[in-house]
Design the sequence.
């Protein structure tokens, strides 16, 4: 057993402990990544209760199937956990029918990128969470997960041009919200 305090464990040490079924490792994994994974899930689901339910299920799944994880260097555990949260969030959105077809929401004009540096991060995150589910999902996958439209389309079961269109519409809505915020608080 590793005698170092849990919070000083390297990711490799943490993987070994969790892989051995050590409760201390499981607790440290939860403490180390729960906040980050909450933020990831919230970007997609936008609802605190849904996020809590999803994360509970994710951590159970992670601990039950940890033997499937392969350590590939520092950061690989966080990336693996994030991917599980993103995939389960998308599955939840599909199951609840919250992904709205692109044609059902009117087109928003988009001129130029606003000055997001003038908007506090918390306000910007709230604006993103208020986007319609389909727009928010495509925006998050494209911006935060850095997925190309072809992969997004495949994941969501939509056409590639629908993914691009939803991203543009999400940007247009965000641009309008950001400009309104700057005008009212600038």
Sequence:
């Amino acid at each position: 057993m590793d005698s170092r305090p849990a919070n000083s464990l390297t990711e490799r040490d943490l993987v070994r402990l969790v892989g051995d079924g050590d409760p201390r490792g499981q607790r440290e994994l939860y403490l180390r990544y729960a906040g980050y994974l909450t933020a990831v899930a919230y970007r997609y689901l936008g609802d605190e209760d849904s996020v809590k339910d999803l994360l509970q299920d994710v951590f159970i799944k992670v601990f039950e199937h940890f033997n499937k994880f392969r350590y590939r260097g520092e950061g690989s555990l966080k990336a693996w956990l994030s991917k599980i949260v993103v995939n389960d969030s998308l599955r939840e959105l599909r199951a609840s029918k919250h992904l709205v077809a692109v044609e059902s929401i009117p087109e928003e004009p988009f001129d130029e990128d606003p000055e997001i540096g003038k908007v506090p991060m918390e306000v910007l995150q709230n604006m993103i969470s208020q986007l319609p589910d389909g727009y928010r999902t495509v925006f998050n996958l494209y911006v935060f997960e850095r997925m190309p439209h072809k992969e997004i389309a495949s994941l969501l079961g939509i056409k590639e041009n629908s993914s691009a269109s939803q991203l543009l519409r999400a940007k247009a809505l965000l641009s309008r919200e950001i400009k309104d915020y700057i005008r009212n608080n600038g």
Summary: Confidence is low (pLDDT under 50) at residues 102-106. Helices lie at 11-19, 23-45, 48-64, 76-95, 121-129, 133-143, 149-156, 160-185.
